[in-house]
Amino acid sequence: MSLVSVFAPTHRDHSMSAPLKRRLRLPQATLPTLTRAAAQKYYSTKQFGSARAFWTRFLSPCLIMESGRWRFHNLDDQHDRLVTRVLDCLEQITLRSFINETSSDNEELSMEHWDMTKPTGKQQCQLLVEVLAELAQATNDDGKQPPPKRSVVVASSAKSPVARLIHDILYTISEHCRCKCVLPHTAMLLLFTHRHVPKNDDAYCFTIFLSRRNLGRGKPWQETGVSIKEQKLKSDSRVKFSDTDLRPKDYSLTLVSNLCKTMNNAATARLNLDINGKLLFQRSGAGLQTMGLDKAEPVSLEDGLFGNKTELDIKSRTCLALVLSYSLLDFCWEPWFPHGWTKKGIKLLQHGRKLLLRPTLVTHMSPHPKNSEMPQVTSDLKLLTHAILLMEVFRQGSLPFEEDFKRLKIDDFRVKARKEFDVVEWDVSEGFRQSGRACLGGFQHGALNDAEDTGESFAGLFCKAVVNPLKRDIVSLWGDRDPDQVLSELSLPSISYNNPSPPPTKPKPDHLKVSSILSSRVKACASHTASDCKAGNEGGNQQVPWPAKHPDVICINAADSHGNMANFAQTDTLRRRIYTLGEDVPSCEVDAQNNTIHRSGTSFATPIAVETAAIVLRFTNNIGHLSVPADFDNLRPRLRTRSGMESVMCKTCVLQGTENRAGSSYITPRFFLYMEELSRVGIITYELRSCPE
């Protein structure tokens, strides 16, 4: 008998609700028992072995669920497939020696009846760990509310209590943001298909993301669970309430005086807050991070989806439309959201290279006092803007209605929107078309009008005319999958990586690459100044005849202080090879220990060669007191040419007898200065006579 067969008989008991059927079998009989047995198996395995590594990963989600007191009451109908997958995977590691079919349902399944074995395949091990982690996240996610008992949403006058409650929560939180941040703190709330407010005597936890101003951890958002107990709102919401106090019994509270500082000092991924009247408390405890979206960046629906070059399939667009329709009923019927229910106001989440299809609302935590009047928008306009939003989601493109909200009257606005609606090719998306048409009709045309009591029954009528057609499309496209779960798994390329890279720039012509060097050389020649051009012919300049290969430029290579050529010296033998000190050259910089930093490279050898040439030029310009040959003044201009300076330096600035050592000339000014002045004049005159004019 398999675990699924053990689980299945509860489905035949029609007197029990679906959530109760799960709570009786899985948490009470299977997982708590297996956790204790797995712990014993862990200690019996070899340290650092593969078996112990598996049992470690197996126990991690189990211990998370156990520390949270096995909160399987957080599961609902949408987790039926997950529970079945868990049981199927557990069957890979468990074998119960016997099952007493006559025993009562309350009989404890002891550890002695379980034989724990590691799955044989690596894929089976990985799948088991993944489904347990998913189950742990679902049971500890207080931000996700259970769906209604009935498939059709209940009609109720309390069609937007969540909006009022969230508004009050944000106001209370903002009162404790006593910081000097330049930008105001914002709050981000994920949109789901089903939300509810607690009963007057029940505690409840909302998951909200609060913006951080200290980005030292690289996380712009702080995931925050806000628990609130004292409420005066009606309990006849359109969705199901939880009868269980979700707060753990053993927790301690710390009064929060500065929420900004509390977020910056938070040691856990999730910050737990409790609201008690006007006071705000931080609740101790690690808190399981349920969303993992603290590094996400909000991007408007217009930019992220409609401006995305990757097309979203119709299945995903239908799922997004259903979530947005439910959220309109929750949050915008009495507008908590001040920026409007449009493509600019609704946000998606961008994380790295992915754009997550998780619709969110982002707003300042308290733009108005708690008891102030919220912005008033007519019901017809709300429905009309939602019709436009549905059309834009279906087309995955924007419609030209940016300024029409303020400029046109409601009737003219509806006429223009209907023209756009008529040209949309809906194809087989009949539910999509029906929902958009119902919103276009609104109250004026009776699509969502109820003659008896419009205000009291609008929620039920909206769900019947707008939500249910989309739900039928969802069933045909996705089966019994939960729309919220589907959206959490969908993504597009982020807008940062979606756009193609610009074409590579074409290489510049040679004369443009060295225009600045050429200009500097011309100025230096005009002013009879020796110039230093520190740019090599390596890499992208290898084929460019500038500057080292230019016929008017002396190419300088590097050597150490003993005249030995450096290993990074050029190997071009077509020209005279001239070297000077360029390896391990002391610079004017010092390190942390105040020691001189030494540098290497031809860029450090070139200035030394320039100074050597300058010394030669200064000597030839100031020899009036010496006896010089008669043609010396006529020969002196040749010293300002490449061939003239090369010839003179290779004869007067090198150690005598080593002019052509290893086919090169190692120049240094000290050799020139060691030579007698008359000898310098004679050698310079002789070399210049052999150089062209």
TrEMBL record:
Source lineage: Eukaryota, Fungi, Dikarya, Ascomycota, Pezizomycotina
Q: Which GO terms describe its molecular function?
A: serine-type endopeptidase activity
Alphabetical list of Gene3D superfamilies matching this protein: Peptidase S8/S53 domain (3.40.50.200)
Q: Where is this region: Disordered?
A: 492-511
Q: Which CDD domains match?
A: Peptidases_S8_S53
Q: Which domain of life is it from?
A: Eukaryota
According to its UniProt entry, the protein's GO biological process terms are: proteolysis
Q: Where is the Peptidase S8/S53 domain?
A: 535-622
Protein name (database record) = Peptidase S8/S53 domain-containing protein
Task: Specify the species.
Answer: Dactylonectria estremocensis
Q: Where is the DUF7580 domain?
A: 159-472
